[in-house]
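User: I'm writing a tutorial on reading structure tokens. Could you give me a worked example: one chain, its sequence, then its tokens, then a sentence or two explaining what the tokens reveal?
Assistant: Sure. Here is the example chain.
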Amino acid sequence: MITFVLFSIRRAWQGFWRNALMSLAATATMVLMLTLLAGFFVLQNVLLASLSFVEQKVEVVAYVQNTATQDQVDALVAKVQAMPQVASVQFVSRDQALADFRAQLAAQGRSDLTAALGANPLYASVNVELKDPAQLDTVATALHNEPIVRSVINIQALVDRVLTFTGIVRTAGAVILAVVGLIVLFIIVNTIRLAVVARAEEIEIMRLVGASDAFIRWPFVFEGALVGLFGALITLGLLLAAADPVSRAVVGFFNILPIELGPVGRDTALLVFGTGLGVGVVGAWVSVRTYLIR
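And here are its predicted structure tokens:
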């Protein structure tokens, strides 16, 4: 078995360079398609990371009555914090709210007219960050029923739009990746089929001398794997060379969103290697099998 595998690999290597023009064309096609696939994958991750950041910033703001005591506020904060839908709770006093408002005016270069007021016009608030933005209505209703809560800011429409857009991006991204993958498979299958047809005479001679289908097929399968491997390596080299300028561009474009992309580089490398080898092997297998069953 090992001898047969080594023989098939050696035949695949010889066949790859014997038909160098066709092999290089298949490899170039593989590089083009894998680069497109990787680009869509990275873009999808950037968009989803940005949307996840926006989702994390969705919060419920409940304004507290001025007559509420500190004990009542502490009890409310503890009660809200215990809710399973809540990630964190922050109480902002009236003085802190006024200080934050004045800081915003200063940052915007606008005049501060609050000093002319006889009293602080702002209310204290309880700011609630959610684990899941879809639970906003549940938390908002619970806060609205509290006696010391004066009002709750309703941003349900905004949350619904964010969740809808996130779902569309996720679905569209998955569909685009699947379509690109099918395009890669289709092109590679037909490219390798051309290589098989170009060596039709050699295959017929092997069949005439009694070679089994496996003996004929496996060198082509390994040759397809070589096309996929070389295509994946070249694609990763191009992505590595473009990683630094692309990263700077992404950070510059999303500089207002401190997004965390996580292990996108590792996932992209796995996607490129897996798709390259998989499509190369499957494409070669389908091409040779189609030819052999004639």
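What the tokens reveal: DSSP finds nine helices and four strands in the chain. The longest strand covers residues 86-92.
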